[in-house]
Every structure is written in structure tokens, then in C-alpha cells.
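check these C-alpha cells.
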Amino acid sequence: MARRLALLLLGAVLGAVFSVRAQVPAGVAPRPPSRAIYPTQTIPLRFDHSRHLRLGGMTCQRCHTNAHTSDNVGDRLTPTEGTCLPCHAIDRGEPLRQRAPTARCDGCHEGWDPSRPLRVERVQVPAANLRFSHRAHASRGVPCERCHAVRGVGLATRLELPRMESCLGCHRPGGAPDACATCHLQRADGTLETRFAEGWLNPPAWMPGLHHDADFWVDHRASAARDASRCAVCHREDECTDCHDGRVRDRRTHPNDYVTLHVPDARLQGDRCGSCHRVASFCQQCHQRLGVSEGASTSARIFGRVHPPAREWVDPPVTARHHGAEARRSLTTCVSCHAEGDCVRCHATLERAGGGFSPHPPGFAARCGALLRASARPCLACHEDAEALARRCR
């Protein structure tokens, strides 16, 4: 039973055709509908559904006359002026006529200007990016208000359009068809269409393991390992192989300067690197070519590109490309190849057989005490008297 419930929770848009009905916690406003499914609408009208539905004899079909016969989401189902005429004595020749119920143009049309009576902003309701038949649902006795909760609202907008949670009340195993492609559009290859002008189709957060959030780039492997057929609903296999074979190099995997910063990851998470890279065929060849491995040729060591030319890397002045700036930026990268003795050879005093180049930048005295208290070991490489140094650096 527990396994069956877990499978049900993983269903829907990216699911392997399993569906459940999600419950919105009490007191929490439901999330707005996806703009990828329902594009932005323009409805410059004044209209009160709740008021009309309180009138005797008013039904949804009275105004939305074509809904019960519509098989396509692109059909126009909003009322026309002719639909309103039986109740509202609209007269374009007398746009300011006072009647009850209202017959003035600005009684319904927001922004209407009497000085330009023929100019009325049009209602724009783009087709939903779905397959849907109102006729099929109406013929099975599904009431309008099961999907469109408009009885308590004024002007109905895309906020009153059904969410997938409400659809899953009927479209579930053992009920109405629950394949994703029953409602969602497909590409020519059979996968779901996920990219639209106003956004992309992303499984909602209540689908455990399927919602593509900021961590999904790392965590998607677990979802794919559980059941790759769920991923195949939207993704083609070549999307996986292009990335995992290295043909697509997404910056979320390795940032721009990852060649400089990869060493700590390689030491701490070598098994993760090994899922794509091989030491002999990738790491060693690169290190030999750059002259940073013991097996590198003399010419590679001389002309290798691991460090900029000496005039930029070693000689003053200290710029952003100087080794001192790079060491402060990421010392862990430096120590992956260099030992402390490499630094001391240049930065120790002449008396200690060093090069006499001070490692302390301007203004160092103001913070030397904090650095000494954090770790005295680097200081003692040159300064022998720890007590005298502590008195100096406070």
C-alpha cells in the first residue's frame, strides 16, 4: 500500500501517467494558474458573475452559448454584444442612454471615452496551451462550476481557470483518461511540448521529485534512477546524452573559470568527477600538455599555459593577474600543486635564504593581529620569536 501511494504522488505532467488529487492546505491561497498553460488575458470589462448568477433563471449556458458544443480551446466562448441585448437595451446611437439594467457603454467597457464612442478596447483571451473539449465534459454531466468557481467573484479572469489539481479529481487511475498527452500538447516525436511564449511547463512543487527547482540540476539523477520513463514524457534521450557525453557544456556544471578552481573539487569529490572524466585519458593528458605533472616534457614545462608570463605573474606591479591576487582569491587552488616551501623561497628574508620579497601588501599591519590569532604557523615560517611577534601584531 505504501509503495502504491508513493507512485501516485509522483504522477502527472512528468509522471508515468499516475495522478493524484492535491489538497491545498487550509488558509493558503491557491497558486495562480501557469502562464505557460493560460497566457495573459486582456479583459477591459466591468462584469459581476456573482450578481448575475443570483438572478433567477441565469445559468452559465445563458451567456456562454457555445460552451456545450465546443471541442477546441481556440473557440471563442466569451459572450458577444448580442448575448447581452435581451437584458441590456444597448443602443450604439445613444451610447449614454440611462436604463436599468445599465445600457451605457461605459457601464461595461472600462476606459470608454464618449468623445471617441467607436473606440472600445477589445477583449483578448488567447487559447490555452491544452487539448480540451467542453462538449465532452458537458455530455458526461460535469457542471461548469466544478472547474470554474465563479459564483463568488466579480469579473472572472484567468485566476478562475482550473488548475491541474482539480482535473486530477477525475483524471486518475481507474477514472477518466490520465495520460499526460490527454490534455497536454505533444511535439512530433511524442514528447510533451514544454516551451511556450510566456514560460515553460514545469511540474508543480506538490509533485515530489519532479519539480524543476534550483537544485534539480543536481538532484535529477535520483528522479531518473527511480523511473526514467517519467522523464521521457517530456525529455528525449538525446537531451541526456548530449549533456552527459560532453557535447553540451552547461555553465551550471562548470562555471567559466572552472579550470582554475577545479582542483579542490577533484580532490574532495573525485568519484563525482569520475562519472564523466577518466584520469588517464583526460586529467593526465591535460596536465602533461600544460606542464603541471611529473611526466610532462621539458618544453611543456617551459611553454605551458598554467600561469601567465612571468612579467604579469611574478613581477610588480600587483595586478588582477598577479600570483598574489590569485592566491588571495583561491589559495586552495595554489596549494593543490605548491607546498609552503615554494612560497618561502621568494618571500622569506635574505637572512633565511629567501628572496627578500615581502608577502605583506600595503596596510597589512592593520590586520596582521587577526591573521596571527587565526593561525600563527604561516607567520613563523619567517618570524622565529612568536612572543615578540604577538606583541607587535595586536
User: Anything to note?
Assistant: The longest strand covers residues 195-196.
